[in-house]
Amino acid sequence: MNLLLLSDEHFLSPTTASISGYQFQHLKQVHKAEIGDTVKVGRINGNIGEGKIIEIHADHALMDLHLSITPPQPIPITLILALPRPKMLKRILQTIATIGVKHVFLINSYRVEKSYWHSPLLHEDKIRENLILGLEQGIDTILPVITTKKRFKPFVEDELPAISENSRVIVGHPKASVPCPQNLTEPVTLIIGPEGGFIPYEIDLLCANGAESFNLGPRILRVEQAIPALVYRLLADQALSIG
Amino acid sequence: MNLLLLSDEHFLSPTTASISGYQFQHLKQVHKAEIGDTVKVGRINGNIGEGKIIEIHADHALMDLHLSITPPQPIPITLILALPRPKMLKRILQTIATIGVKHVFLINSYRVEKSYWHSPLLHEDKIRENLILGLEQGIDTILPVITTKKRFKPFVEDELPAISENSRVIVGHPKASVPCPQNLTEPVTLIIGPEGGFIPYEIDLLCANGAESFNLGPRILRVEQAIPALVYRLLADQALSIG
């Protein structure tokens, strides 16, 4: 945790917050925090700054906050992801938040098993919990917006064109002959398939609706590896706030 | 598992292998394999090809093998990594193998806790097990070589210059003002610090021994995210066999 990310319910006043739960445990056990210490703090969808510990109790601490730094610029990528296996979803949500992607559609695909849609990890509060963990790692405050779409064809035909308007739409596909683009500065809609990949019908439908397919070399990465690999390969320095 | 990776002990003859353990379970449960089916198979440090199932027993199967395809070209990166927390090490070893890095040094650093060096995951057979899982994901056969170095200063001063000879030596450092290089075709020695980063003394010593520091933007990635992000950002298409 590189940032303690607070939501509205933590705030007792605009400059005072009460920290409990895993964040309080982290303060005590990792930071060995004592009264007077300061830690990096952010407010969900707000600023970043410092929190000074003013009281420590058995199960919570009080902090004085000074939040004056704006969070890093979002990554200009909308991510469309075939719903991952529940086991992977948690880490993938954290990765998305850490990297700075703010708009994500979890979609159906032939190789997405129906049972994945019933995972408790898709409950709103579980999604939020993992996004917050990811933001705390990446030192950001802006919660990504995760939308689920359970029908592939209507999504691609009826919604993708509007979602991806004014962006470069690309889909990873091991059999594509075009190499992954680089140094992009314009907005990107990045589509990543399920384990085993999209089936040819799905690739064809995506390409008929504005997507270009590309390859990332012979190695098949896991989704949680492919997301950082693709985001950092596709974008120019300025889009990643590098340098 | 995108490849069934076999070691010498699986081979009954140069073209016949016996599959048991988790690989047999995967064949039965995921591939629902039957006699006559073929699956993608590789031999550790050898070729890739097809295995045809010729017998299925209670706890093993026999395969006829035809291995004629050479594995993908290694990634021209030597990775020097501050020893990660045991909890992360397993996934990091898998990631390294999946991505195609073949030479890794796990080193000490001020922020590496002493207890990490006693993790059972550092036992040779556990390292090998996780590397094989990573290679099976990435469809590769060449086992990475993992070396541990428990003393930072002697490693950097006495060994790094020889290890990194004829390569570009770079170290990720959030405070560096130089952006992460791109499109490299020459060999790279990539140095990644622990959670919390290298301390200034360590960065200085690395830079005094040939390393350049660079930044990857404001977001702090986990090591298992930083490895794919950096490898795919640093290298040119040809070094990644893309296109």
TrEMBL record, chains A, B:
Extract the SUPFAM superfamilies matched here. alpha/beta knot
Organism of this sequence: Sessilibacter corallicola
Q: What is the role of this chain? A: Specifically methylates the N3 position of the uracil ring of uridine 1498 (m3U1498) in 16S rRNA. Acts on the fully assembled 30S ribosomal subunit.
Q: Give the main location.
A: cytoplasm
The UniProt keyword set, sorted, is: Cytoplasm, Methyltransferase, rRNA processing, S-adenosyl-L-methionine, Transferase
Question: Which major enzyme category is it?
Answer: transferase
Q: Which reaction does it catalyse?
A: uridine(1498) in 16S rRNA + S-adenosyl-L-methionine = N(3)-methyluridine(1498) in 16S rRNA + S-adenosyl-L-homocysteine + H(+)
Domain Ribosomal RNA small subunit methyltransferase E methyltransferase intervals: 72-231
Where does the UniProt annotation locate this protein?
Answer: Cytoplasm
Classification via InterPro entries: Alpha/beta_knot_MTases (IPR029028), RsmE (IPR006700), RsmE_MTase_dom (IPR046886), tRNA_m1G_MTases_N (IPR029026)
EC numbers for this chain = 2.1.1.193
Protein name as it appears in the record: Ribosomal RNA small subunit methyltransferase E
**Pfam families the record matches:** Methyltrans_RNA
Family designation? Belongs to the RNA methyltransferase RsmE family.
Top-level taxon of the source organism: Bacteria
